[in-house]
């Protein structure tokens, strides 16, 4: 069994030296256990937080431990009554080829699964994050202007497309002309602005002539600076992620602008609400699964993946994710399906 462990904690952006590939003999299942073969491993921005020991909403990965992560795996040996060899399962095996499990936390997806990797993206955690955050916190209404950054990733692309289904004018923000073209031509956004453009703030203002009613926050930093002055009275801001800050080692230089933020929140009566999707795995998950399956089948939601072959490529691919190197949901194909 090959596994990638956290070798040491990163200072700033993660580097290859923070990871180590180890090998160990394949474990054998005891009675009540099963052996899982990871087929797809999800790489997600939150993993940067797990590499650091700063206080957060969950415990960090310890030095020498296997990096955590969601997987879609196949049962290759079973001594558990509820699982058969060949079943697909949604697991949390982390960055490794195999995992011994007693079934805790597993979801059995059955032997016949059309798009196994979608369970890590549009039909899984990132898709549910978009659905819950936009509909329940963002409360979008027809005719309103919705802005979302990281617009071609699994969360942002889904947010924007649900916004179009609701009837919003949707403006994306993405890194580079190719991603922006994709958001408009393929995903059906009304506009998409390149956050690397020199006149990004002016372009964003021009694309939002009626201001912004819902800003789904994925990135923070300079993008948020450009959004804040455009927010309308009673705008809603679901705070989902701040990926531009995850590698930061200190607060940015300059005057303290928290007073400006709070005065804007007051006079514009803003609703700014952070959320962690782990808190919401309740009844809304059923609504999500029903709606998203129907939207995908009807072609109303499109989904793009970037699949990287080989567990050993995971560190490099993950480093790229934090800088926009991915185009679509980043997934590692760990084993054959
Ligand atoms: P993505 O696949 O969209 O990857 C992150 C993207 O962020 C990059 O591709 C890049 O896109 C963009 N980005 C990186 N750095 C910057 C920067 N400095 N300025 C602007 N954009 C930047 O990831 P996900 O869709 O999986 O996640 C999106 C966000 O949602 C993340 O912040 C993540 O942490 C958060 N999240 C939160 C959850 C929760 O429970 N609250 C659950 C799941 C995700 P580009 O090239 O277009 O700039």
TrEMBL record:
This is Enoyl reductase (ER) domain-containing protein. The keyword Cell membrane does not apply. InterPro entries: ADH-like_C, ADH_N_2, ER, GroES-like_sf, MDR_fam, NAD(P)-bd_dom_sf. Residues 12-332 form the Enoyl reductase (ER) domain. Coiled coil: none annotated. GO terms for molecular function: oxidoreductase activity, acting on the CH-CH group of donors, NAD or NADP as acceptor. Keywords: Oxidoreductase.
């Amino acid at each position: 069994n090959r596994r990638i462990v956290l070798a040491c904690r990163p200072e700033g952006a993660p580097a290859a030296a923070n990871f180590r590939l180890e090998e160990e003999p394949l474990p054998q299942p005891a009675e009540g256990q099963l052996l899982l073969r990871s087929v797809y491993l999800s790489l997600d921005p939150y993993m940067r937080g797990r590499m650091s020991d700063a206080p957060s909403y969950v415990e960090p990965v310890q030095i020498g431990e296997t990096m955590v992560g969601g997987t879609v795996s196949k049962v290759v040996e079973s001594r558990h009554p509820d699982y058969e060899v060949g079943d697909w399962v949604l697991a949390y095996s982390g960055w490794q080829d195999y995992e011994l499990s007693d079934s805790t936390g597993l979801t059995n997806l059955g032997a016949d699964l059309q798009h196994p990797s979608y369970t890590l993206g549009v039909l899984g955690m990132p898709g549910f994050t978009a659905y819950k955050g936009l509909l329940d916190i963002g409360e979008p209404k027809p005719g309103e202007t919705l802005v979302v950054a990281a617009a071609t990733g699994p969360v942002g692309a889904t947010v924007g497309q649900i916004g179009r289904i609701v009837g919003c004018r949707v403006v994306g923000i993405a890194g580079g002309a190719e991603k922006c073209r994709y958001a408009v031509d393929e995903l059906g956004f009304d506009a998409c602005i390149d956050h690397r453009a020199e006149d990004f703030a002016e372009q964003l203002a021009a694309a939002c002539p009626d201001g912004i009613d819902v800003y789904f926050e994925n990135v923070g930093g300079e993008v948020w600076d450009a959004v804040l002055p455009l927010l309308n009275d009673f705008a809603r801001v679901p705070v989902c992620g701040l990926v531009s800050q995850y590698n930061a080692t200190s607060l940015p230089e300059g005057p303290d602008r928290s007073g400006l933020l709070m005065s804007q929140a007051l006079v514009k009566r803003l609703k700014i609400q952070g959320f962690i999707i782990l808190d919401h795995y309740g009844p809304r998950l059923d609504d999500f699964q029903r709606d998203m399956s129907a939207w995908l089948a009807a072609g109303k939601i499109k989904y793009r993946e970037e699949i990287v072959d080989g567990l050993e490529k995971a560190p490099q691919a993950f480093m790229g994710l934090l800088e926009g190197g991915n185009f679509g949901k980043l997934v590692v194909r760990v084993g054959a399906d």
